[in-house]
Amino acid sequence: MKGAVLYRPRDIRFEERDAPRIVEPTDAILRLSATCICGSDLWPYRGISPVAEPTPMGHEYCGIVEEVGKAVKSIRPGQFVIGSFATSDNTCPHCRYGYQSSCVHREFMSGAQAPVLRVPHADGTLVATPELPPAEMIPSLLAVSDVLGTGWFAAVAADVQPGKTAVVVGDGAVGLLGVLAARQLGAQRVIAMSRHPARQQLAREFGATDIVTERGDAGVARIKELTKGVGADSVLECVGTQESMMQAIHATRPGGSVGYVGVPHGVEFHGEELFYTHVRLHGGPAPVRRFLPDLIDLVWKGKINPGKVFDLTLPLDQVAEGYRAMDERRAIKTLLRP
Ligand SMILES: [Zn+2]
Fold it and tell me: 90 alpha carbon to ligand 1 midpoint, in Å?
């Protein structure tokens, strides 16, 4: 089997790897229908997160169950399933509290940019669709696996409420689907911060009511202007830099909430400054598993089409070009066909 392996910054290879097989009795083996490249894959690709050794890449996946271990009860061969980047037993106290990405059995997935994938804790991690999906639905089901689930958590963590105002910082795929999530959760006004015309267009398709092109303090000033000097009720931080985090906090009204899902890189908080903002912060690795059943249902019924976020589709053997296109911001998100 051939899959994507990152050797060092900007050196991604499509090379022979051992085909996954059942290791633990709770495992499942999937034949992937589609996989993709995550914005967070760009951190090691760009050398911002160190790459200690050649690393199989990919953690977003959906496909058909080929085989299950002896202890797997609810997942069966032949089902079409979706899982997230964090495995979970879905029974421990953190899982039952809705924080499956902090499961006591959590493993972070990797190696999904490949035709076949081993998924630990299959019963707790995977959710099956009602039947085999039509081909055109697969990009949207794949989006549920991480990018929509993460944007959705940003909106939930930012306490988006019907009739209220939400701001989305970040126009990557997660931010764009954060716009969709905020609208689905009933926000009346969704302000997307983007200076990229194609991404602004997609943000509008996903339900953005306003676009702000300014950044940093100028961006905050513009949000204040649009909210009569008050600030936003909810802000979704979908980048993970110092500038984006401060932009999010400063755009939030006193008593409002920031949901942050951009993996922080070098972000620091000043305690006293934070104290006087009166802003709630909640975030972390999204417990996508909590949302999978509802999000799959929304896609299945045709109520949302998050697969639009994939603006480049390549055969898996061209994975290196997929990374380049995202790195150079020529593509928002690359879908890979094994
Ligand atoms: Zn658990």
Answer: 5
